[in-house]
Amino acid sequence: MYFNDNFNSLTENYLFAEIAERIKKYTTENPEKKVLKMGIGDVTLPLVPAVTEAMHKAEDEMSQASTFRGYGPYEGYSFLREAIKNYYGTFGVKLNADEIFVSDGAKSDLGNVTEIFSQNNTVLIPDPVYPVYVDSNIIAGRKIIYTAATEENGFLPLPDKKIKADVIYICSPNNPTGAVYSQENLKEWVDYANASGAVILYDAAYERFISQTEASRSIFQIEGARTCAIEFCSFSKTAGFTGTRCGYTVIPNELERGGIRANSLWYRRQSVKFNGVPYVVQRGAEAVFSKDGKEQIQQNINYYRGNAEILANCLYKLGIWYTGGKNSPYIWLKCPEGMKSWQFFDKLLNEAQVAGTPGAGFGKNGEGYFRLTAFGSRETTTEAAKRIEKFLK
Fold first, then answer.
1. Of 116, 120, 134, 381, nearest in space to 271 by CA
2. Last residue of a domain, one of 257, 291, 325
3. Model confidence over 228-283: pLDDT tens digits?
4. Domain count, the chain
5. Angle, in degrees to the nearest 10, between helices 49-62 and 279-287
């Protein structure tokens, strides 16, 4: 009997586990020091009233025989899929409800969707990148090639027609860099994928943070995307569902390869390996799209945007290069004085008691850069900015 030895090709520690270990070591040795955690992108604001009210009502339904729900549909309840469909309509995207699949989060789907693709496919991934894209394909044993995201291209690489790939990962607004593709640039990727027969896996988890009209909320705003793209979205960062777990994936009916519909494959995969998101959670997610829900969640988004502005203003005053913040909850900064990413992490932790995320943990091109998150409290963010300014002056 053998285990999957592809796991041996993964980096020794998952990035955020390594960060946690270093913080734990420091706090154990310095118990009197308070560390401000500006690294892992977990939210701090609670679920909004519209969501919790819907969940309480659904819990009451589950306590009565006449309204109790058992196993739900693999693809999600129709009430939530219709709400998502209508939400897409608010920015001009027409979807069919049967193209929407509710899940326990974008991270799960981004890792699991690889199962509907051949192991022989070549995967194109930007560097730096959210680690799940890389690790899930390493585990599957696929060939991975990288496209360089750099300061020179604004951390937004464009397609190279000389490169042949079968599956392409795009994240916009980007994690970790916060950079956002324009619709014009996304059209280049869509045209490239359609011309080569590739499929784009589009991570739109942070789309609610976009404020610029020239940027896309969805890849399906781009002509031609329905024949080459799958979109992943999440309630985690927009509506605070990190501990509640809910997201969705959109697979257009037109997406076919070799006469096989990707939509049908994904439904089959989900029906074999997934029993759906709890009814109570889906009712909460439905409330995200209600009038009150949208207004309350926008207040939370504005709160995090305010945090990002505090961090951005701090770096601007110090003359430190950065991207992100405006359309993203992440700030991606260049480490000062040519420091390496982990060197800057340790120095910032030890001298200012602020913890961020080393860019090197996201790939080769992340070396020399650092990520800060705007998901903390206003008090923590303000204090972190003061400490960073004092530390770097």
1. 116
2. 291
3. 999 999 999 999 999 999 999 999 999 999 999 999 999 999 999 999 999 999 99
4. 2
5. 150
Is 312 in the same domain as 214?
A: no
Record the tokens describing residue 383, joined without a space. 């204090």
229 in the same domain as 125: yes
User: Are 125 and 217 members of one domain?
Assistant: yes
Domain extent for 352: 5-47+292-392
Tell me whether strands 229-234 and 354-355 are parallel, antiparallel or unpaired: unpaired
For the record, the structure tokens of 247 come out as 């997201």
| β-pair partners for 232 | 203, 249
Which tokens belong to 34? Answer: 């308070």
| 322 and 256 both lie in a single domain | no
Nearest 10 degrees: CA dihedral of 222, 226, 232, 237? Answer: 30
Whether pTM > 0.85 for this model: the answer is: yes
In this structure, of 8-22, 46-60, 161-175, 260-274, the range with the lowest mean pLDDT score is: 8-22
Percent of the chain at pLDDT > 90 equals 93
